[in-house]
Design a protein that fits this description.
- With 109 residues, the protein is mostly helical.
- Helices cover 48% and strands 0% of the residues.
- It has a single domain (8-94), classed as Orthogonal Bundle (DNA polymerase, domain 1), CATH 1.10.150.130.
- The chain has helices at 8-25, 35-48, 51-70.
C-alpha cells in the first residue's frame, strides 16, 4: 500500500531520516545513540503526532536501527523496544479539562 503516493520503503527512509535529523539537532551521533536518546525522540513524536503516525514512524526507526546493527554500524538496536502509546494519556496538553480525561458518557462533565 502506498502512503500519499510514496512506496513504503521510501516512506520508511523518510521517517528514519527524520530521526537522524533530530539526532543531529540534539548533537547526538546516530551511530552511538542510546535507548534513552530514542525514548526522548519518542516523546517528541508523541507530542507532535497522532498515535497511529507515531507507531508508523517508530516502526521505521526500529527497522532502520536493526539494519544498522546488522551491518555493524551500531553495536545494538537502541530503538528495539520503542512502541507508540496505546492511548493519549502521555499527551495531557492535548486533553480537554486542563489535562484531565473526559468523564465517561452519561457521568456528567
Amino acid at each position: 500500500m502506498d502512503y500519499q503516493g510514496q512506496p513504503n520503503a521510501e516512506h520508511n527512509r523518510g521517517n528514519a531520516g527524520q530521526s537522524v535529523a533530530w539526532c543531529a539537532e540534539q548533537k547526538i551521533d546516530p551511530a552511538t545513540a542510546t535507548e534513552d536518546d530514542m525514548a526522548t525522540y519518542r516523546k517528541v513524536l508523541v507530542a507532535e503526532y497522532a498515535m497511529g503516525t507515531v507507531a508508523v514512524k517508530l516502526a521505521a526507526i526500529r527497522r532502520s536501527c536493526e539494519a544498522a546493527a546488522w551491518r555493524g554500524l551500531h553495536h545494538d538496536n537502541p530503538a528495539a523496544g520503542l512502541r507508540a502509546p496505546k492511548d493519549r494519556t502521555e499527551r495531557p496538553s492535548q486533553l480537554r479539562n486542563g489535562g484531565k480525561a473526559k468523564p465517561p458518557r452519561g457521568q456528567g462533565g
